[in-house]
Amino acid sequence: MERYYQPEIETMPVEQIRAVQSEKLVKQVKHAYEHVAYYRSKMDEAGVSPEDIRGTEDLYKLPFLSKEDLRIAYPTGMLAVPMSECVRIQSTSGTTGRRVIAFYTQEDIKLWEECCARALTAAGATKEDVVQVSYGYGLFTGGAGLNGGSHLIGSLTLPMSSGNTDRQIQFMMDLGSTVLCCTPSYAAYIGETLKEQGYKPEDIPLKAGIFGAEPWTEEMRQSIEETLGIKAYDIYGLTEISGPGVSFECSEQGGMHINEDHFLAEIINPITGEVLPEGEKGELVFTCLDKAAFPLLRYRTRDICQLFRTKCSCGRTFIRMKKPMGRSDDMMIIRGVNVFPSQIEAVLLKEGYSANYQIVVDRVNNTDTFDVFVEFLPEHFEDTVRDIANKERKLQEAIRNMVGISPKVHLSEPKTITRSEGKAVRVIDRRKLHD
Ligand code: DLL
Description:
Blueprint lengths: L6 H4 L3 H22 L1 H9 L21 H6 L13 E6 L9 E5 H17 L7 E4 L7 H13 L2 E4 L5 H11 L3 E4 L1 H13 L11 E5 L5 H11 L2 E8 L4 E7 L6 E3 L4 E6 L13 E7 L10 E7 L1 E2 L11 E2 L10 E3 L2 E3 L1 H10 L6 E8 L2 E9 L9 H19 L4 E5 L14 E3 L1 H4 L1
Parallel strand pairs: 3-4, 3-5, 5-6, 6-7, 17-20, 18-19
Antiparallel strand pairs: 1-2, 7-8, 8-9, 9-14, 10-11, 11-12, 13-14, 15-16, 17-18
Helix pairs in contact: 2-3, 5-6, 7-8, 8-9, 9-10, 10-11
């Protein structure tokens, strides 16, 4: 039996969702125009006034916002309420330039936590569950968001934060954690460690995992599900729009339902900005419909994705998004060919390797080099040098079939590639250092 946190909203007829969105959008545009000088000048520049927006059909008239706008308006230029109305900030994990700081009022936090409670409920969590939150706490939204959602449901919440894997396992076993929330790469690492400590899937109390914050493939899902003996659900979000819970997977595990009563999604052509019809692949853009403190409108996520509204067996009516392939800026252009790390991950797992890998791209004598480092499996220890070379060649061939260009594959001993406790760093692009 499918369970919902807010059934009347999550299963609302589509026409009703549209009406709710239109009503909220009109108010939100007015709110942003009146209270955010930076946004007002953007709208004035685009020649659009709040009166021009009468419903979602007018959304296309609004200018886009990008990370660049947030950098210009840093730190408080996008704030739409007095600072005294805010109760929290969170920040992105970005490593380049200024971090984005998002502000929340008490009500903004409540709405965000409800979104996380919807995600946890969709993954089967109830008051009887023990939810281990192993996303980072602090400025990162993962820990705070899932922690809040778990409290709303009334589950016993373990605010573990990320890292200290032996302690994670000890608490999991001693308290009988049934739901694990962390990045998929950390889930894989916890699974690997449990296996090394002699635990079999049936010894592990977990029944579900809520994994997101980074791209991961279906192959990775299958591998985590087998190692931990759980169902692994995807969850998506970004700091600018609130944090985890912008969208979440249900029992069908076939795409993430977007919480459309709060977030209006569009897909655009990332080059021309043209809005694309449902089902086409492009850049995901979000409009926050009811956030008070940080009301971003038509915010370009840079995530490449597809939307679809086919009927879902779970009964939810919210539109779904496919797994994002990664950010447009995660896409590597190697010798003129577009390559996403997720494509490499899919090949490695299909060929029976683990998801511990790193891609190194460089430029030597004006030619791009493309190296993939992967660990061989413990059962390959007996292999001869020739066996290893054959395996490398086979992987190289499989990657070429997937992406169209050939990498140099390096198989190395297990444990030589750094494990991730948060967002995994899959790509080292040294070309950027030369620019
Ligand atoms: O990663 C929020 C989050 C925390 C989501 C915990 C899910 C779970 P940021 O640090 O601002 O926020 O990074 C947002 O991460 O634009 C995507 O590129 C990527 N991302 C997030 N979730 C997924 C996912 C959090 N499920 C950026 N699949 C986003 C693929 C994801 N990419």
